[in-house]
Write a structure and sequence with these properties.
With 419 residues, this protein is of the alpha+beta class. 58% of the residues lie in helices and 14% in strands. It contains 14 helices and ten strands. The strands form three sheets. It has a five-stranded antiparallel β-sheet. It has a three-stranded antiparallel β-sheet with strand order 8-10-9, with helices on one face.
Length: 419
């Protein structure tokens, strides 16, 4: 028999049946402590070098490194220790515990619910402990023996457990891949925000499709069984899911032609605000009131949309003002122009202007035309500030702002009113 690790150790006093398990326990503890020290040093360096991986694991990088290193070193010790010894069982338990904790931290970093993580960790612990001790086959046979027949197929507990484990693993891999790819695209240079968003969504679709076919292959599902299902799915898409797929395609088109981008200020019907997010189904528009309107992508393709920042972020604001006919017209226009120039949000270039637009019924109509470069902050505050300055300047210089009046003329020979 090939000499194992106990034969390579120096002879220790005492009963080997007691000494070897204690040595194995001390070795497992030492491996865990050393792995923790190595992870403490290596985690910050890996986080700086592989920023996308560190962000994707959401703060679990150090425990993942610690348990991963401990599992790898413990696996070597288990391989050198002969099967059947109690010390081998101790090391196998340490290996199973490290792998289970590794799985817990990986799945929790991907926001997998605890109800799904704990059974997977327990199953992994039992499988590793049984497999390293040479006894996994009886456990598998026991799980495979519990089941029921459904037609020509037999559903067993082992098959259900395997299916659940594969689904959770694929779900975790999809989330991890989406996070890593998404953060890599976010930090990529040479792409604007719209191109990054489009690349992230296309990459997410590719990852999900690849995971689906990998899962079908691992579960041994016959693809010919999907022929009827695909026909039913086609009818569902044609009737019930037509709007859903229409919004999906519309969202991809919006991202490709860049007519609407995150950060744009748009007006759709009664909704005015800046685009926060372009999703698969709808575009999120946040108004000045803090309300978030979810507008279906298809509406943005079929309805008229005002994009205030499509090609230029500068927006002209029209502020109507009326003065009395007895006021000094030139002085009033100079005061209106001064009020616009002193407003902090009004741009100096293009410069503001004052136009005489009409001779109204009670007043002389003017428009103060100003330009702003931050339409996402709204136009109400600009109008309020300019009009407030106009009011104060008019009051100080005797310019009147008339209000509607009605003059009633009564004939002289009208009968006096009755007492």
């Amino acid at each position: 028999m090939t000499p194992g690790l106990p034969e390579l150790l120096p002879l220790l006093p005492g009963d080997p049946a007691i000494v070897h398990p204690l040595v194995a326990l001390a070795l497992a503890i030492a491996i865990h402590l050393i792995a923790g020290a190595v992870a403490r040093i290596a985690a910050p360096r890996l986080r700086r070098r592989f920023r996308g991986l560190g962000e994707a694991l959401a703060g679990h990088l150090r425990p993942i490194l610690r348990h991963g290193i401990a599992a790898a070193v413990t696996a070597l010790a288990v391989a050198f220790w002969p099967v059947g010894d109690l010390a081998h069982l101790v090391l196998s338990a340490a290996l199973a515990l490290s792998l289970s904790l590794l799985a817990v931290h990986v799945l929790r970093s991907l926001a997998i619910p605890r109800l799904a993580v704990l059974p997977i960790a327990l199953l992994l612990f039992v499988m590793v402990l049984s497999g390293s001790s040479g006894g996994f086959a009886p456990v598998a046979d026991m799980l495979d023996g519990v089941g029921l027949d459904l037609g020509k197929r037999r559903v067993t507990l082992l098959g259900l457990v395997s299916m659940a484990a594969i689904c959770v693993a694929l779900f975790a891999l999809v989330r991890l891949a989406n996070r890593i790819i998404g953060r890599s695209i976010t930090h990529a240079h040479g792409l604007d925000a719209t191109q990054k968003l489009l690349a992230q969504k296309l990459a997410a679709i590719v990852v999900v499709v690849a995971a689906f076919f990998i899962g079908v292959d691992l579960l041994g599902v016959d693809l010919t069984a999907f022929t009827v299902f695909s026909g039913a799915l086609g009818l569902a898409v044609g009737f019930g899911l037509q709007k859903t797929f229409g919004n999906l395609i519309a969202g991809i088109i919006l991202l490709m032609d860049r007519s609407i981008k995150p950060g744009d200020v748009i007006v759709v019907g009664d909704s005015f605000g800046w685009v926060n997010k372009i999703g698969v189904r709808a575009v999120s528009v946040i108004t000045r009131d803090g309300k978030e309107h979810l507008i279906p992508n298809e509406n943005l393709m079929t309805q008229e949309v005002e994009n205030w920042s499509y090609s230029d972020r500068n927006v002209r604001v029209r502020i109507p003002v009326g003065i009395g006919y007895d006021s000094d017209l030139q002085l009033a226009q100079e005061l209106m122009l001064r009020a616009a120039q002193e407003s902090p949000r009004v741009l100096r270039n293009p410069k503001p202007n004052v136009w005489l637009t009409a001779f109204g019924e009670n007043r002389v109509e003017h428009d103060i035309l100003v330009w702003i470069s931050d339409p996402e902050s709204g136009i109400g505050s600009v109008k309020s500030d300019v009009l407030g300055r106009v009011w104060r300047l008019f009051r100080d210089h005797g310019i009147t702002i008339p209000y509607p009046q009605r003059v009633i003329h009564a004939p002289r020979d009208a009968a006096p009113p009755l007492p």
